[in-house]
Each structure stands twice: as structure tokens, then as C-alpha cells.
User: What shape does this take?
Amino acid sequence: MLKKILAQISIILIIFSFNSILAAEKCSPDLEMNKGNTSLNSEIDSSEKGEIFVFFDQSTTMKGFTVDQPGQENLYVNIVDDIQQIAENIGSDIIYQNFGNEINPMQDRDVAKVKTPKFYDCSGSSVACNNQSSTIQEIFKIAEELPEATHIVVTHLSLQDRQLVGSESKQIRNPLTSILKKGKSIGIIGVMNSYNGTIDSIPQKNGEYIKYLDAESRPFYILVIGNQKNINRIKADIVENHFSSNQENFKYALITSSPILQNLNVNKLIEETNMPAKLSREDEFNFSYIDDYLPIYRFTGDKNTELKFKINNDDIIVKGSTGVSNFSITEKVWTTNKIKCKDIKSWNEANFGELSTITQNKDELVIDLFTKKPLKKLFRGIRYFYKVDVYAEKPGDSSEKEFSNWSVNSSEIDDFTQTNPVTFKTLNLEKFVSILNAVSGDTFKKTLIASFAVNFNLEK
Assistant: This one.
């Protein structure tokens, strides 16, 4: 027993001595860790339920969603039920309102009427009923004033040109900018649905407006403004209930000030496998973290050593968001003429200019190391320490592409209507989404998503 205890103590002492030697070695230069924002996408996750505001578009053109079209499935009625149930599940107080030319409160018992044609009957003058416009910008103001609440808007989302330019455009942009700056997000859920009614206020090239009665299908939209948890909950419930097997008639986009999911270094998510597998077979290969933050790939290589650092997009991009259209890297290099770590007394910072390139495809982000200055052009017999910081520079515009085939511009809608379409598109939808993306871009800040280093010497 005594021998066993002494043996265990000896092993512990050997390990301690080895670690002390490593600690004394100058195998890395003195580094200033740029940890960026370590709390990316960290909305307050509270179990407490908050207020939910639900707005139903009451303009007469919405009536067509409540009237069945023979031979087609009508999801509108069911999804109205879903929204009511979801609101009850995620909210403490539910406030229902309708809107058209103005916003009006609703009694809870009146929500059932939203599923009936009568709810959309206009009681005003014929002039007023034929010239309805959406006051959706007023809803955005309410969301700005009550940022901790969740706001759900059910609407056709067709907007006239005047609402998307000049001062009226600012009534949309300004509150949405404020909402995103407060860390909230905007979800757009689109559902292609059967339609049996009148589409009004269609602008013509001559300046007049006409109606269209021959559409058999048309999309409606659910805008959700609030925290991503509730937005994702609403989206997930609708998908599960109606689109689990086929999402051909479903579209979704998430607009946020930060489409970045996380900094990979914070939870030490960078691994050996981010580099090519054969790198681990190089002489003296070692993978470790320093300061529990920076991963270092250490090895002895040659001019043919492949160095490609890959990041899965799903690890850094918020799912369903606009994504990131532009990434960048910053690079630093240090050198020493001492090959063995135990011999290194100091490192010298070097200026090699740009060394590597960064590219993105639909699946991953790739940093191709030493493409601008290949390893074969570096001096042999020198140890190199090369540190890379990876940044997201600009949000993407994938949401515009997602909804483009459901959108028609005012300059095109006259010709589009003349084709007698059975499926009718949404006026200026792409322009509206473009405004949301612009707002997202205005509130986006350059974001550090990953840092790593390679520590190597090249064989002569």
C-alpha cells in the first residue's frame, strides 16, 4: 500500500514539474487577448411571461382569406387560432387590436370574428372603404414604446410607394432602428394561402387604382417583434402544426441587429477538427488553449503543409437570420530563431503584410492560411507564431432573396395584373424587406467571432 501511495505521489510530482517547465518556456509571445463582445445574442432569458400585443389587419382585402376557395386548403382560419393559443402560452396579458386606417382595441371575445368575412366589412362611406391604407407604421411606434412586450401583426403587407419613401419611410425606419438597437428582433413569417375575394388599391401606370377579383391564392404575413425566443417559438409552432412535411408555401426571415450566434472562443468551441485532419499527423503536433481562450495549433511542418481553418456557418450564424455578407481577418506574426521552446527568450513581431484569405459558401467559412505568402517562401529554421482574428463585418440580405418571388414592384404590377394571375403577389414586399435589412445594417457592429493561432517551425 505504501509503495502504491509513493508511486502516485511521484507521478503527481512529475506532472507538476513538467507543467512548470512548460510554464517557464517562452513558447508563445506576449499576447493581448482581444475577446470582443463575449455576450453576443444574449437576450435576457426570463421565465416570466410578458405582455403580448396582437394586431389583426381589418382592411377589406383581408376578407378573401376567410372565404374558402374550392379545391384549396385554407390555413388562415387555423393560423388565427394558433396565434391566439400561442399568445396565451407565452404571455401574461394579451391585448388584441385591429387596424386599417386606424388602430382600435378589441375584446377577447371578438377574436373569433377575425375568422369570418363579416369582420372585414367596411361600415364607412364608399370613398373611405375604397381607399383603405395600412397604418402599420403606427404599430411599429407602439413596439418602440413598449420594447419588452411581444408584438404580433397579421396582415397582407402590401404597401404603397408613398409609405416606403420620404417622411413616411422614416415612420417605419426610425422605430425599427430603435427596436433593433434595444436588442430586439423582427420575424417575418409568410404563408401562401387560398384566396377568394377582392384585392384593391392596385396602382396603375396612369396613376389610377384598380381592383382584382381573379386571384385564387395569395400570401399573408405574420410579423413578430420582440425577443428571439418568442419569435422562434411562434415560428416553430406554425411550422409544426402546418408545414412539418412540406414548406413550399412557407417563408421565414429573422431581422436582427446581430445575426452572430456566438464567439467560438468563449465556450472553447474551436477544436482540432477545424483544421485539416492530416495536420494532427505532423511532427510535434499539439493542440491546446492558452488563458482558456486562444486555441493554438503547434507543429513542425514543411512547404506542403495544408492550413485551412473552417467554421461551420450553423455555429456562428443565427438560424433564419439575414446572415453575414462580409467577413474579415486581422493577422499578426511573431518570429524567433530558436526552434525549441525551452530555448526561446523572446519573440520579434514581424510585418509580412496580408498572408491569408477568407471565403464563405453556403455551408462554411474558410480561412486559407498563407495563400498570399506561401509557406515555401518563408525562411526555414525559424519558429513562427501566427495569430488570426475573424470578424463579421456586414449583415447579409438573404431575407430579400427569400421573399423575392412573392413580391411585385409598383412599376411591374400593372403588367403583372394584365397576365390574369391566379396567384397574386405582394406589392412592394421586397422593398419593405430591403428597408428592414438596411435598418439591420445600420445597427450592426463589427463583431469578433473567432481567434486562433498556429505555432510552427519549417523544416529545412
In short: The chain has two domains: 50-256, 262-395+447-458. The longest strand covers residues 324-336. The radius of gyration is 29 Å. Confidence is low (pLDDT under 50) at residues 11-24.
